[in-house]
Design a protein that fits this description.
alpha+beta, five-stranded antiparallel β-sheet, 10 strands
């Protein structure tokens, strides 16, 4: 029979296509020893095997855009990495060596990362682990796969040491923290600040609001009063009429309605008491 890879494919199978399929996992063993195409007749067994290869050429290569669009196989990647193992490339880790000057000799042995190459001076700008940049000749830089791994370890070690050193450096800043209210527009009263939940107290002009829950919105320094949201309305109140209630939830329309009803019921009940009973209740006496 005629070779299907040569006579049934249009165009015939190329050497590049054959080599690509031979590199794929589970490729037939004969592809490593046989040629891509034959002019002469081939046996029936070889014909059947090569028909399967022809189907792979169509489905795996040509229907995917051609051999130029194929991703490199594992062997291709290994060959490429081996050929370029010692190339200086932007972004790749490197190690500094061979610096002779007294001011730069301490850099020998340090890991860095290649940033860019200056075409005029033929010097590489490299970034050290501490993000400091230096301009070095290519002869003072070495790269390899081992140095790639060494850089990762050195960078991780540097970050851990930097993190461990931060608390000690940050301690003086904590001592300089400003006291509460030293630069704020509102009075320095613990538990009373924007967003704080409070209970109203000591109101004589509107005693029915005493005990109501509110939330501090903002402080007006000109009039010296807090704008307090009661859930259903807002009031401008002095700080002495606010008792912090940090454990309570902010007021809502529903909670304000419930408090208003409870206050009205209490007022109605007190109106039925005698003066003596009302006085006793105000001071917590049970009348005995």
């Amino acid at each position: 029979k005629s070779d299907p890879l040569r006579w049934d494919l249009d165009p015939p199978c190329s050497e590049a296509e054959w080599a690509y399929l031979a590199d794929l996992p589970h490729a037939p063993e004969f592809m490593a020893t046989q040629a891509c195409g034959y002019m002469n007749k081939i046996c029936r067994g070889c014909y059947s095997a090569r028909v399967e290869v022809m189907a792979k050429v169509r489905s795996r290569i040509r229907q995917q855009g051609g051999i130029e669009q194929m991703r490199p196989t594992q062997r291709m990647r290994k060959e490429y990495d081996a050929a370029h193992e010692f190339d200086l490339v932007v972004g790749r880790p490197a190690r500094i060596h061979g610096l002779q000057s007294v001011s730069a000799a301490h850099l020998n042995g340090q890991c860095c990362r290649l940033v860019r190459l200056d075409e005029e001076t033929q010097r590489w700008t490299v970034e050290l682990l501490n993000q400091e940049q230096k301009a070095l000749k290519a002869s003072n830089l070495e790269v390899s796969r081992g140095i790639d791994a060494e850089y990762d370890v050195a960078q991780a070690t540097y970050l851990l040491e930097s993190a461990a050193a931060k608390p000690a450096a940050a301690a003086p800043v904590a001592e300089e923290r400003r006291p509460l209210g030293s630069r704020t527009a509102w009075p320095k009263v613990r538990g009373v600040h924007p967003g704080a939940v409070v209970r109203l107290q000591g109101l004589k002009g509107a005693p029915e609001l005493n005990g109501r829950k509110g939330r501090c919105i903002s402080f007006d320094p000109e009039v010296g009063r807090w704008t307090v949201d009661l859930g259903d309305e807002r009031k401008a109140l002095k700080v002495e009429h606010l008792a912090p209630a940090p454990g309570e939830k902010p007021p809502t329309v529903q909670s304000a309605e419930e408090e208003r009803k409870a206050s009205a019921a209490k007022a109605e009940r007190r109106s039925t008491l005698s003066a003596k009973e009302a006085f006793a209740e105000s001071y917590g006496w049970d009348g005995s």
